Amino acid sequence: MSARIYQPARNAMQSGQAKTHQWVLEFAPAERRVKDPLMGWTGSGDTQTQVMMQFDSREAAVTYAERNGIAYQIETPKKRRHIIRPGGYGDNFAHSRKAAWTH
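-> structure tokens emitted (103 positions)
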């Protein structure tokens, strides 16, 4: 039984950073998924893949894994570069706006 410790990426549909500051411990699948012959759904008997635990820090996740004898891999996150540009969204509502409001 092995696990993966990572920090989740931001939601692609949003520009915010919500739910990206916690660390997640997620178990790797122990057996492959099989297709149900009657319904066509995929599934497996491995219930560990349904477990996803969240921690406030990477050290807390590592401590939990070591205390319970779980082999783990740590995936370090790639930090995103903040794009701060002059004349952004807030300038659409500025009093000093020179162009006419078009919509």
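The radius of gyration is 22 Å.
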